[in-house]
Amino acid sequence: MCNQTVCLVQAAIEREGIATVSISLLREVVSVLKPPRALFVPFQMGFPLGEPNHPELQHRVIASALRLLERDDLPVLESFESVPKENE
């Protein structure tokens, strides 16, 4: 799916009062388009949740993205830390 399209659709949905979050593999795109909430992940193209068969990592990515829904200091571009924090 086109990253630019996702950012634009996300912004349109937010204008209707529905909070959104996206996971991005291309920091340069979201840095320019500034969607309301985006999580940049350092994985290779095609693997936005990390390597297959690593459910712990994939759950951490999803949880990190969902935590962005609590933010209202928009736009938010946060980077995913692949090393877990001690309290997680």
Describe the protein.
This protein is an alpha/beta fold. The chain is 38% helix and 12% strand. It contains 3 helices and 3 strands, in the order H-E-H-E-H-E. The chain has helices at 3-15, 27-33, 55-67, and strands at 22-24, 37-40, 76-79. It has a 3-stranded parallel sheet with strand order 1-2-3, covered by helices on one side. The chain is globular and about 35 Å long.
Helix content: 25-40%
Spans of 5+ residues with little confidence (pLDDT < 50)?
A: none
Q: How many individual helices?
A: 3
SSE topology string: HEHEHE
Structural class from helices and strands? alpha/beta
Side by side, the strands of the main sheet go 1-2-3
Q: Work out the number of β strands.
A: 3
Question: What would you report as the Rg, rounded to the nearest angstrom?
Answer: 13 Å
Profile the largest sheet: 3 strands, parallel
Distance between the termini: 31 Å
Tell me the β content.
5-15%
Mean pLDDT: 89
Q: Judging from the principal axes of the Cα atoms, what is the shape? A: globular
